[in-house]
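Hi V.,

You were right to ask for the full record rather than a summary. Here it is.
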Amino acid sequence: MASAESVTRGVLARVRGMETLEPAYEAWLELRLAYGAARVRFQEERERLDQQGSFLVGAVRAASQERAASAEPAPAAEPALTSGDAPMRDFLRQAEEKLTRAREALAKEEAESEARFQAAFEEIRSTVMDRVRRYLAGSPPRLRLLLRKVGATRAILHVERVGGDAPVLLVYLFSGRIPSRYGFLFDDSTEDVALPPAPLYPEEGVAPAEVRPEAPALVARVRAPGEVLPVKGFLPVFVPRPEGGEDFFRLLQRGPVMEVEVAEGPGFRGVLTREESERFAGHLLRLKLEGRLELEVEAG
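Predicted structure:
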């Protein structure tokens, strides 16, 4: 397996050599996979050394018992090493010293590997963040909001599908953070075919058992401090309320459009009240007037 130094050096060289976002994200994912493999390798090596130490102690004990059995008809169940067992004591001591040195060397290597990976992660996050800010300032993303009335007081809002760098830029625009993956918005993969795609990736502090939270936990995850959001299949949007506080909306990817949903109880609701739809559209309009978003609104 390649060392942490060679892996991080190669990944960072690619990131520094290109100014676009997608290659940086590809390198980030490669680094994440290499980091996971390195952690598994160190864990397996620790377990191997522990097993080796346990085996040696057991072997010496068995040798001592065999020696005692050959000298006495009825030995004790767990005889201690006697003065005649000096060679075995020396063998065990030397083996334990060797294992101790191996564990210390492994711990040092693991600490150095961890430091290299974390430094590389920090550089990639910082690089992606800087590029997102520059791209957002130089070329604001464009959205087309589609209003579909449902009766006199309710509406369904759709946003036309966006591509390229736009999903990454929009996550930063709406949340001040960057997504953990470049193609997150269109990723409909699922680890269980009986379940819909999870809204979170099991990374950036999200455990595999936490990828399908209810709405309040998802809101808390999006609000949590940090630079990276491991969101999947949607864009998060917080919209202020006139009386204070915020409502959490998500733009859920559904084929050619994103459907605007609002958090309600443990889930989300896609049919909005007139007030909710107006506030959501008004939030996007404010971003447009600030020059941070290109917006087109179509009422159907």
